[in-house]
Amino acid sequence: MFHGSLPGNVQQILGSIVQDWKTDDIYVGCSGNYTIERMLKGCTSARLHSNDVTVYSCLLGRYLSGQPLDVRVREDYDGPMRFVEKYMTDDAGTIAVMLLLSKMALYLTSRSNPYYEKMIRAYARQFPELHAATKAKMEKVEPFISSLYEGDVCRLVDEVPPDAGFICYPPFFSGDYEKMFRAIEAVFDWTPPEYDMIDKDKIHAMFEKLSRRKYFMFGTNDYLPEFRHCLAGMSQTTNRGVPLYIYSSSDRSRIIMPRQLVKSPPFHRLGPDEDIGDSMEIVQLKSEYFHALRSQYMNVHISPGSETASFGVLVDRKLVGVYAFSAAPTLANWDKYIDTPTMYLLSDFPVAPSKYKRLSKLVLYAALSRESKAMAERLANKRIRSLTTTAFAKNPVSMKYRGLFRLLNKAKLEGTDESETDMSKIYYNNGYRLNYGAAMGGWSLQEGLELWKKKHSTTEGRTET
Prior knowledge:
Layout: H1 8-18, E1 25-29, H2 35-40, E2 47-52, H3 55-64, E3 72-73, H4 91-103, H5 105-109, H6 114-139, E4 147-150, H7 153-159, E5 165-168, H8 176-187, E6 188-189, H9 200-210, E7 216-220, E8 231-235, E9 244-248, E10 254-256, E11 268-269, E12 280-285, H10 287-297, E13 309-315, E14 318-326, E15 342-350, H11 359-367, H12 370-380, E16 386-393, E17 406-412, H13 423-429, E18 432-439, H14 445-456
Parallel strand pairs: 1-2, 1-5, 2-4, 5-7, 8-10, 11-14, 15-16
Antiparallel strand pairs: 3-6, 7-9, 8-9, 12-13, 13-14, 14-15, 16-18, 17-18
Helix pairs in contact: 3-4, 4-6, 4-8, 11-14
């Protein structure tokens, strides 16, 4: 029902720490979708106080604290969702409208195309049923927040009583949620709070203030050596995933790490001196097979995401590479550059070593094939037109994707200090972040193999990176 979530492992650590707090009030900064508050109400009797600045979080916070929403449809709005006004007869109905608008954000805020227009019409046609179901869920939620501070979290820290607890898990990334907020603000007329944009320096200064309190807790995806004396917990959701650090005044440490099942797949692999065969196919892999292959062949400094499905690329029944799709919802949109809807290529890599310098391109030929497109559409339960992916490279182009994929966007990264020793941070913060896209279904698997043999089956020259 709500967007985003704090990992369950981190919630366990937070809950175990708060149970030892002897305070009547706990303040939560940057409440977001109120995951922390919803967790806290089950493990403490302290009064809960929330904070945020976005239209989504402020209106949700008003509802969860029993305040009037004070929102209406904008008088100057003349878009396709004007009809939602008749569903905003009470607070539960209004919140239900907001939640549905947030789910439609990609279609409402992107450049119009036939697919997005079709999705908007489908939502409008089904809106009575969707709204009724969402409203019924919200009506079951009783107010459990004592107060809501709509404003700058850094100012809130200065106003909280010294004997109260304070928890803050500030956002680390921005971008996707802006579309969600824009979709809501385009329809809703509300008065936003005044606040300054938060950055790393302000977050660090806020952490300094929090660390001097008796009851405090803050989370970050960075290890902060200056606060190592109050490191109270660490968690990872997946092996080699981004670690999450919890800092607190607690005198006990907690660590929750994943247990990932790995198993060698039942395929022979292309040997270092073997020639490529003549018949290519793709087979869906079990998660334990994909995890084992990813750990063996992928750059160890890449933080892996969670795949929706993974596939082995076989030639004459010998494994030559692997790729994986993610069908997770996203507000990212590239319809100015490629045909949409898209599927995200989460991972792709060849087996190694081999005699071929561009074997990775054969994996991409397989991923873009008609057979792969059918697999993607089965996963997404809708038509898929293109494949998108992200690469991190020292140069403003990735040789692996060049020629098959179109460069959609590139960003020069800030770089890291010379003293930085974390290779994962160096990987993700130096050089360029490159977004690529390509149409799917331009050839069959067999045609893709023949194209690769004709263009890329060299055994000499520079290896792709």
